[in-house]
Amino acid sequence: MDPKSYVLADGRNDDSDSDQEIEIALQSGLIDGKQFMIKAQKRELINKVEDIKQKLSQIKSNGAWIKTVAVTASKELIFDQDIDNDFEREALFYKQAQDGARQAIANLKQLNIPFARPADYFAEMVKSDSHMHRVRNVLLNKQKEKGRRDTVRRLRTEKKFATKVQKETESQQRE
């Protein structure tokens, strides 16, 4: 049983009692506070620059581009303008994405790797056909209901207009 969830018969939580007991024991000298203190361990900083550079060069030279598919944006697409200009920043993100896609396509063409899906390719669908038929039926029913409401609204306005025209013709005939 979790000691934090343990409740005494009189409704008090045992956790608060143990804290009080420890405080009393510390004050009376029955226990020393050394066992309750947590010492922060100081770790020695490790900065092996040569090893890091060696590993980086190993990563760069290890394997073909297709294993990582890493693309870096061109240097002219670095954002160095006003950081509060959200529109310019978003436009630059878009340009960086386009540039990256162009670089990746060029690399794939150079490696003779097809990157476009063939016209006769059929992918496995996430949703089943029966589910998609139900979704289609729901959408068609909504569209039919909207059309019916529009027709009823149009007929109502036509009827009002016809009544208005009829009253005007009757009033003109009386005069």
UniProtKB/TrEMBL annotation:
It comes from the Eukaryota. The keyword Oxidoreductase does not apply. InterPro entries: Ebp2. GO terms for cellular component: nuclear periphery; nucleolus; preribosome, large subunit precursor. GO terms for biological process: ribosomal large subunit biogenesis; rRNA processing. It is found in: Nucleus, Nucleolus. Required for the processing of the 27S pre-rRNA. This is Uncharacterized protein.
